[in-house]
């Protein structure tokens, strides 16, 4: 039998009431931020803590496939916004009638307002061709990168920094603007900045786009249930 690595274990006990409340508060009050960004720059230490939280996300085979491309330059962010704008016109054309009007009235990005953009990428080759846990589903490396983004989002919330995820782009446009090689997957463009206020429910719900589904309808016991 192998020796238990006691030196590298920490207690798995539950958090104190206060610690638990803080974790749930970060989860429940995290919002996708679009229009509420303030121009104030993000403190370097806070940014590093947020990136460290992202870097401590779980990843398949511990491959840590992520990179974080930080974009502060306003001319570059303007070019990213133009790429969004083109893709958003295409997206808007897919809706009809009232839904199209509502879509047009939604603000779906904070690329120019937020002082920092982060393009999060996934390198499928980070841990060689055979990755523990990825063999039967190649998407596991992308899923790992999404875990990093969620950690980043929650840590930002705890730091009082807002974040918005923008996905309305042609990959090729972001790739060209940021010099990202073909073999690297673009997972998300994140807008980060201080915010004065946050919606207390998802903005898409507040603006009548879609409601939060009842959890009871989404939880199945023992197998799939067709409603
Ligand atoms: C993968 C992915 C991609 C996007 C998003 C999220 C995720 C997870 N969201 C944010 C999304 O609309 C938001 O999370 C939901 O509306 C729920 O709101 P809260 O995040 O709880 O505020 C998002 N929002 C937006 O305005 N423009 C966008 O392009 C995207 N893209």
UniProtKB/TrEMBL annotation:
Keyword set, alphabetical order: Cobalamin biosynthesis, Flavoprotein, FMN, NAD, NADP, Nucleotide-binding, Oxidoreductase
Catalytic activity: FMNH2 + O2 = dialurate + 5,6-dimethylbenzimidazole + D-erythrose 4-phosphate + H(+)
Enzyme class name: oxidoreductase
Signal sequence, start to end: none
Gene3D superfamilies: NADH Oxidase
Residue ranges constituting the Nitroreductase domain according to the UniProt record: 27-194
A single GO BP: cobalamin biosynthetic process
Pfam assignment, any one: Nitroreductase
One MF term in the entry's GO annotations: oxidoreductase activity, acting on paired donors, with incorporation or reduction of molecular oxygen
Enzyme Commission (EC) number: 1.13.11.79
Description of how the protein assembles with itself and partners: Homooctamer.
Family to which the UniProt record says this protein belongs: Belongs to the BluB family.
Name of protein: 5,6-dimethylbenzimidazole synthase
């Amino acid at each position: 039998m192998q020796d238990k690595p006691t030196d590298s274990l920490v207690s798995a006990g539950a958090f104190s009431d206060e610690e638990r409340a803080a974790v749930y508060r970060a989860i429940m009050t995290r919002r996708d931020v679009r229009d509420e960004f303030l121009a104030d720059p993000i403190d370097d230490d806070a940014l590093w803590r947020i990136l460290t939280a992202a870097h401590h996300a779980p990843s398949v085979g511990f491959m840590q496939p992520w990179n974080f491309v930080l974009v502060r330059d306003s001319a570059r962010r303007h070019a990213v916004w133009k790429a969004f704008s083109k893709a958003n016109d295409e997206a808007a054309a897919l809706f009809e009638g009232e839904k199209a009007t509502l879509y047009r009235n939604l603000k779906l990005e904070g690329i120019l307002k937020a002082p920092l953009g982060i393009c999060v990428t996934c390198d499928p080759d980070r841990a060689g061709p055979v990755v523990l846990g990825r063999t039967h589903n190649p998407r596991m490396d992308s899923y790992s990168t999404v875990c990093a983004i969620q950690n980043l989002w929650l840590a930002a919330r705890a730091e009082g920094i807002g974040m918005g995820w923008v996905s309305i782009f042609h990959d090729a446009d972001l790739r060209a603007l940021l010099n990202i090689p073909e073999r690297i997957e673009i997972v998300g463009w994140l807008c980060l900045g201080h915010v004065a206020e946050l919606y207390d429910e998802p903005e898409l719900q507040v603006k009548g786009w879609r409601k939060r589904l009842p959890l009871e309808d989404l939880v199945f016991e023992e197998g799939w249930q067709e409603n």
